[in-house]
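Quick one: GNAT family N-acetyltransferase from Streptomyces halstedii, structure tokens please.
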Amino acid sequence: MTTYLESERLTLRPFTAADADLLIELDSDPAVMRYLSGGAPTPPEEIRDLAIPSILAGYERWDHDLGLFAAHEKDGGAFVGWFCLRPLRGGPREEAELGYRLRQAVWGRGYATEVSQALLTKGFTVLGIRMVWAETMTVNRSSRNVMEKLGMTLVENTPTPDDMTAVEGSEHGDVRYEITKEQWERRQA
Ligand SMILES: CC(C)(COP(=O)(O)OP(=O)(O)OC[C@H]1O[C@@H](n2cnc3c(N)ncnc32)[C@H](O)[C@@H]1OP(=O)(O)O)[C@@H](O)C(=O)NCCC(=O)NCCS
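--- reply ---
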């Protein structure tokens, strides 16, 4: 198995075409999808026909340096969800989005913070990234807490996209957090 990243307790690896069922199960938990779809599961065919091909194409586009990766516990190997660090399609390669989606069973153990910290380190020291951003709904407190624990700064409040206006809390809009390489380096000192 190719390893993309290791943190203290977790390992990230590239997804393969055989992993659709892991994502289908992850997205079938209404609590996981609460601030993404309002709780609705992602249709399995959307994962098989759109999400997986798009994830695999991303590895090629970014030379296997950036993308969306499966997270497993080192102890026992259980799949716990995914993390991403990737530019916008067609956007500058040195600016990457941080994202995460974890199984409810592992929330509150510090996994999102731990792996995101390792991703920032890799991005800023190895991959040539100059700025990392992350976006979520204003009311998604646990996601924002992770961004704030990473030292990211709230830079913008934007309206929730039209396809999410039915989601609870969408009237409060979305938030965008950023951290530059310089800001990250100052925090390490
Ligand atoms: C958002 C999400 C990834 C957070 O994952 P998580 O692993 O529970 O996050 P963490 O454990 O790092 O932080 C959450 C809590 O764990 C606690 N924690 C326990 N051990 C910890 C440790 N060693 N280090 C840091 N925090 C720790 C913290 O107190 C923290 O509490 P806080 O939120 O009050 O600050 C997870 O809730 C999720 O997948 N949600 C559904 C999908 C989603 O909304 N994704 C974001 C969309 S933009």
